[in-house]
Amino acid sequence: MGRMGRTGLLSLSEGGSCSRRFLGYDSGKKAGEPPVQETTEAPLNDTTTTTMPLTRIQRLIGERMLASKRNKSSYYMEIKADVTELMAIRHNLTRALGVKVTTGTFYIRAMAVAVKRFPLMVGRLVSGVSHNNGDGHILQIAENVNVGFAVNTPRGLVVPVVRYTEGLSLAEIAEEEKVLTDKARSNKLSLEDIADETIALSNLGAYDIDSFLAIIPPQVSAILAAGKIVRAVVAQNGVPVVRRVVSLSLTADQRVIPCDYAAGFLQCMAEELNEPQRLI
Description:
By secondary structure, the chain is an alpha+beta fold. The chain has helices at residues 56-71, 84-97, 103-117, 170-185, 259-274; strands at 8-12, 18-22, 39-40, 74-82, 123-127, 137-141, 147-149, 151-153, 156-158, 161-162, 199-203, 222-236, 239-253. It contains five helices and 13 strands. A hairpin with a 2-residue loop joins strand 12 and strand 13. It is globular, with a radius of gyration of 27 Å. Mean pLDDT is 85; it is low at 1-29.
């Protein structure tokens, strides 16, 4: 859109171009009147642009996420988790276990624990007919908590999967997370590495993002979005104290997971992260 001068109005001409008409201007001016200069903005198609082709991964992810957004009845909720103790022990834990323990490692471990109490979080609708449901869909609950976590690479976003997390220790999850992240960034992920996701995690804390709402991947019914860990003043025993807090946002499919059920899962996540010793 063009700039508007102090005495000008911007309007759309009948020809579809943007032109400036000055207040008091009459196109049928009388003889002897001073000429009025008309100005026309540069055509929009004169704008310099750069064309960048989409990669195969970008096209595939875009198509699948758009289909998921259209087809799932998504709702959103958020909780703040106190991770002060978690951050205090993380670096020492890395040295003790001999493998890098990230905040994402704790999130995956906490998700595995919380899903044991709330198994619908790894449920999904599949084609089928039951005796009391003739609409062509039935609810299928996965036996395993396979957490897909987003990794940004030079070729685009990929989602490797930490499989069978319900049976893994924190150290085992950390090791698997590291191996998959390295493979993702070196373009060495196999089909098995990205298969069988049953719940998803997206962590943008490293990008200085406070909180965000994620789109549910097509094959699952819930995704947890984690923001950056910040210092916040909270009341503790009636006294203001500074704690480390993270925003956890959940996007879930209403057709599979009731809102109050998802709220219970999110509360369980926050409780586990608040007492990280239970996750080791």
